[in-house]
Design goal:
Keywords: Signal. By secondary structure, the chain is mainly beta. It contains three helices and 19 strands. Helices cover 8% and strands 51% of the residues. The strands form three sheets. Strands 1-3-4-6-7-10-11-14-15-16-17-19 form a twelve-stranded antiparallel β-barrel. The protein has a two-stranded antiparallel sheet with strand order 8-9.
Amino acid sequence: MKFFTKLLAVIAVYILFNNSNVNAQGCVAIRGNGSFQTMDHPMLDTTIASDKSWYLTASYRYFKSFRHFSGTAEQKQRQVLGNEVINHQSTIDLGITRNFDQFWSATVGLPYLINTRSSLYEHGGKERHSSYSHGIGDMRIVVNRWLFDSHKTHKGNIQVGLGMKLPTGNFNAQSTFYNVTPAVRPVDQSIQLGDGGTGIIAEVNGFLNFTSKFSGYTNLYYMANPRNVNGTRTYRETLRATLANEANSSVPDQFLARLGANYTFQGHNSALTVSGGMRLEGIPVYDLIGKSDGFRRPGYVLSAEPSLSYSLRKINFFANVPIAVKRDRTQSKTDKENSIATGTRVIGDAAFADYSINFGVSFKL
């Protein structure tokens, strides 16, 4: 029981690390900004709930998106015809957490992204070429507080967090495109390194101990991006006249919800935790604050999320593999407007991954 009582502060260590380019996996562009993977795994040395300490976390995330969906319907013909878009995205996430006492903590994190996007339609439609982007992403700074004193509360706890996402990532990353003649221009929104907006992060994390080994967890996350568009040209207006409203990149909100359970095998100086749950993440059609003009691919992914964590003294290893069970590319604002104008339902498509691979390590300094 004591082990789980102290578990609550360790959750704060992991809240902002192990992406997420969280994340909806593919052209629904949730970047690796870290906040989309909240920790549900314990660390053996869990005194961070009650003392001043520092934690360093490093994580890695990879996925390949290639399955196209329009709404919830998969466009299987894209792979048969060989005109699907294929994204390979890797994110290395580094961050540091300062625990002030059993209530308060603050985390600063910065991802590094490596992206490749292979397509036909962006390169004239006859030959497949690739575009690239790599560099630092958007920084986040979040302050968290547990609502109840961990010294007195043993059954469970709730943590609330508030912070900012800073536009440190390049939102106008460029690569060479091959049409009539090669030209350098901005890469697709899904592999841009940042979105150009200053985001407002709000999150709620909680856990409940059912027994000394079995517990449940939940995480709710929303990032509001008040900025409307960021000025990065998409060139979508060159595809069809009906996409004229999408010539500029939108700065969209992002959301995440998780619910699951943990079971811990406790050793003398170590602990192995097995976790399982569901994960919902995506981009809304309309932002919570401000306008929602420009180009975005709204949608969501519902995933089954198995996880493992191994704790040994002052170090914790973790890994999870969210597996998509439902993918939905919802109607964008432009789709809705064109549906009204034409009298027929218009909806774009987006490429999604089958799963993502996430793993990392945390150290108490």
